[in-house]
């Protein structure tokens, strides 16, 4: 079985998952229209169970849990029948929408970010009167990591620690009460931080010190305003208070106990939301081995906007229309230059203003402003003076239109699985033209690979007659050249190894004919490259695991792929 990335595996079943979720959504709508009939909810239950099973196999953190919560609340709604609360039905509908959008998000981004699912999961749990889960429930980190210097004894006697902790807990509680009421939150968070600083100081390097340290980072994140003070975070602050209570009761003995892993994970997670340049957050990230690409609060908000904003299909549809509109503007501009009549440029300006309004809807505000300024300039050209198409003024207009077109193309790429917007900033080259060229190259490369595979098949069927192999090396070299244009160095290395094997082993008359197994192994390597190109062509990236299999095949044939 080909080992591929989890998010790449999603591409293989995404269409079926979408269809199943739509079926569940239709069942819910039918129930809303006729609450007395619960038959359609049975259909929803089956759909959610199927989705849960698939997502569990894919091992995508967070997504199976959301599917399971959808299944649970559906049972609650079915049992309630006409008495089902509107909040439960609304949470169910929202959960279906969020799961579908999250699957699309993972397909587009090629990564999972299960924190985005926690609000929807908790909305479902709360509607069923179940406690919420921490936002850090799926947050990956090394929770067993140790703080630098940990292991020292408490600096005070157990009794003295308990006495000091009582006063510090009171300080923490007074500030916490104001925070829960929403009163002067920033100031009271600093008071809570002061209390934890003091308890950490008297605790020395004890195990509980990890909680005070990371909780202080969490308080800093909450105090910077970029992290919302929602219910789960208030519960976290209350959990820290309960840990302080243990210190009041047991003194230094409590400090030498291991902290609650749930609280510690939540503290590490909240600390990771500190801005990237924050030294406190960076130290905690390093100590608990938080992934380098884990987003801070601003990054998380941006990712949430991507997931909850217009869907990829909508963006691609609008982008395609904008591309057509910009093409129309360029055609109209060409006619205006040729005609040079009064009002010709004004009509182009009207078309350009429509493009500017659409750009605002897509969030491309800077590009919209450029388009509007250029539209105003075009109106001024209707004064009867001749416009030189080769002049600097006209060329700057063309450059700006090309830059706007590339901005639209870059946005479209962001919402297309397997696409990259690396050239988005290159205003001198049309990304759409590059895309068209890329599609042609991929198609030609796949055609060349198909030709090579037919030659190998003919070679085997003709009892290893080498005449069928004569053109294959040149064909594969041509394909490798196309792959170099696409910057697919790994695939190029595989085809180079295939050419080397054919030249030195198969076309060498002094060597005996290879076995069928060897030929099938060679075909596996070439087919692996073909599968990889096919996934690019269909915008369903399968990951580089298939290329790893191809490399293993060539290594088995004694012609390992050269590493670049």
Structure write-up:
By secondary structure, the protein is mostly helical. 70% of the residues lie in helices and 0% in strands.
Low-confidence segments, given as residue ranges, are: 1-5, 420-427
SS-derived structural category: mainly alpha
Radius of gyration: 31 Å
From the 3D coordinates, which CATH architecture of the largest domain would you assign?
Up-down Bundle
Total number of domains: 4
CATH class of the largest domain: Mainly Alpha
Question: What is the straight-line distance between the termini?
Answer: 27 Å
Principal-axes geometry comes out as globular
Mean pLDDT: 82
The number of strands is 0
Which band does the percent of strand residues land in? under 5%
Reported by name, the CATH topology of the largest domain is: Four Helix Bundle (Hemerythrin (Met), subunit A)
Q: CATH superfamily membership of the largest domain, which one?
A: HPT domain
Major sheet size, sense and barrel closure: none
């Amino acid at each position: 079985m080909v080992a591929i990335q989890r998010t790449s595996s999603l591409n293989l079943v995404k269409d079926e998952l979408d269809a199943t979720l739509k079926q569940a959504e239709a069942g819910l709508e039918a129930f809303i229209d006729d609450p007395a009939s619960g038959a359609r909810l049975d259909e929803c239950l089956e759909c959610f169970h199927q989705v849960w099973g698939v997502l569990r196999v894919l091992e995508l953190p967070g997504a199976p849990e959301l599917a399971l919560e959808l299944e649970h609340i559906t049972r609650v709604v079915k049992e309630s029948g006409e008495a089902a609360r509107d909040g439960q039905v609304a949470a169910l509908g929202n959960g279906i929408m969020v799961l579908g959008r999250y699957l699309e998000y993972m397909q587009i981004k090629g990564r999972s970010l299960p924190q985005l699912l926690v609000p929807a999961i908790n909305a479902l749990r709360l509607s069923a009167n179940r406690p919420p889960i921490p936002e850090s429930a799926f947050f990956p980190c090394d929770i067993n990591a140790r703080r630098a210097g940990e292991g020292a004894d408490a600096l005070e006697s157990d009794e003295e620690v308990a006495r000091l902790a009582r006063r510090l807990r009171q300080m923490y509680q007074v500030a916490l009460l104001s925070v829960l009421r929403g009163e002067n939150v920033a100031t009271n968070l600093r008071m809570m931080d002061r209390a934890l600083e003091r308890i950490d100081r008297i605790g020395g390097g004890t195990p509980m010190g990890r909680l005070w340290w990371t909780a202080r980072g969490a308080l800093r994140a909450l105090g910077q305003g970029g992290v919302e003070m929602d219910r789960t975070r208030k519960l976290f602050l209350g959990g820290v208070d309960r840990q302080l209570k243990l210190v009041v009761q047991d003194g230094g003995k409590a400090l030498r106990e291991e902290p609650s892993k749930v609280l510690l994970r939540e503290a590490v997670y909240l600390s990771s939301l500190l801005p990237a340049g924050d030294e406190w957050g960076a130290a905690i990230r390093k100590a608990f081995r938080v992934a380098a690409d884990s987003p801070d609060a601003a990054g998380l908000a941006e990712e949430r906007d991507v997931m909850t904003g217009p869907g990829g299909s909508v963006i691609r549809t609008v982008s395609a229309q904008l591309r057509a509109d910009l093409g129309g503007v360029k055609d109209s501009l060409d006619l205006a230059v040729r005609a040079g009549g009064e009002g010709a440029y004004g009509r182009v300006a009207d078309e350009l203003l429509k493009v500017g309004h659409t750009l605002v809807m897509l969030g491309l505000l800077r590009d919209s402003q450029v388009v509007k300024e250029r539209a105003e300039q075009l109106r001024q050209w209707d004064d009867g003076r001749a416009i030189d198409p080769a002049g600097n003024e006209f060329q700057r207009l063309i450059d700006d239109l090309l830059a706007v077109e590339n901005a639209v193309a870059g946005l479209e790429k962001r919402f297309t699985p397997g696409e990259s917007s690396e050239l988005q900033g290159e205003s001198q080259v049309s990304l759409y033209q590059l895309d068209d060229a890329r599609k042609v190259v991929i198609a030609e490369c796949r055609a060349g690979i198909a030709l090579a595979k037919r030659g190998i098949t003919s070679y085997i069927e003709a009892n290893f007659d080498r005449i069928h192999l004569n053109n294959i090396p040149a064909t594969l070299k041509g394909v490798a050249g196309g792959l170099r244009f696409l910057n697919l160095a790994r695939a190029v290395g595989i085809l180079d190894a295939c050419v080397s094997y054919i030249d030195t082993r198969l076309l060498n008359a002094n060597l005996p004919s290879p076995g069928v197994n060897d030929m099938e192994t060679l075909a596996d390597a070439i087919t692996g490259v073909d599968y990889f190109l096919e996934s690019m062509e269909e915008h369903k990236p399968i990951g580089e695991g298939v290329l790893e299999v191809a490399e293993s095949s060539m290594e088995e044939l004694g012609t390992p792929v050269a590493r670049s």
